[in-house]
Amino acid sequence: MERTYIMIKPDGVQRGLIGEIVKRFESKGFKLVAMKLTKPSKEHMEEHYVDLKEKKFFAGLIEYMTSGPVCAMVWEGKGAVVTGRKMLGATMPSESDPGTIRGDLCIEVGRNICHGSDSVDSANKEIAHWFPEGICEWESCSKAWIYE
Ligand code: DAT
Ligand code: MG
């Protein structure tokens, strides 16, 4: 089953939005298989966003992302990567549709409250980067009521 790395950024944690975001993924039918609150180091965060290191907003992005705890999660389910991105909404909150997490809950790109893997390949890399200890394998009793 596909897995995606979803992270609530420091602004989402500070604004008390962990429950709201977790609720959306749970209600959808995805299964939570890893979760922790952690304050990432600069090096750890730079590695996570290594593909953006040439961008002019990179330094500000790292400062923001290391300014407080993040809620790191792995969610599992059919199409979790693509659907997870749709649930987050567009990167720019001004372009995120109402009904999406960013569309409903934030205003600025530099405070867009959540991260989601953009491909299965990056999900696997991000899960290994954030959860080197591994994830929690478990069977959900609602599986037969979510999948046919
Ligand atoms: P996403 O988080 O939707 O995958 P991304 O990977 O292109 O988007 O960028 C990572 C984060 O960097 C994004 O969530 C917020 C920040 N960012 C992206 N574009 C930006 C910009 N033009 N100005 C400021 N911050 C930006
Ligand atoms: Mg991205």
Structure description:
The protein has helices at 10-14, 18-28, 42-48, 58-65, 80-88, 101-105, 120-130, 143-146; strands spanning 3-8, 31-38, 70-76, 114-116. It has a four-stranded antiparallel β-sheet with strand order 2-3-1-4. It has 148 residues and is an alpha+beta fold. The mean pLDDT is 98. The radius of gyration is 15 Å and the shape is globular. Bound molecules: 2'-deoxyadenosine-5'-diphosphate and magnesium ion. Its EC number is 2.7.4.6. The active site is at 115 (pros-phosphohistidine intermediate).
Keywords:
single chain, binds 2'-deoxyadenosine-5'-diphosphate, binds magnesium ion, 148 residues
Name the bound molecules: 2'-deoxyadenosine-5'-diphosphate, magnesium ion
Uncertain stretches of 5 or more adjacent residues: none
β-strand number? 4
**Helix proportion of residues, in percent?**
40-55%
Q: Rg from C-alpha positions?
A: 15 Å
Distance between the termini: 14 Å
Number of helices: 8
Question: What fraction of residues sit in β-strands?
Answer: 15-25%
Class per helix and strand makeup: alpha+beta
What general form does the structure show? globular
SSE topology string: EHHEHHEHHEHH
Q: How are the strands ordered across the major sheet?
A: 2-3-1-4
Major beta sheet summary: 4 strands, antiparallel
Mean pLDDT: 98
Provide a brief overview of the structure.
With 148 residues, the protein is α+β, with helices and mostly antiparallel strands. Helix content is 41%, strand content 16%.
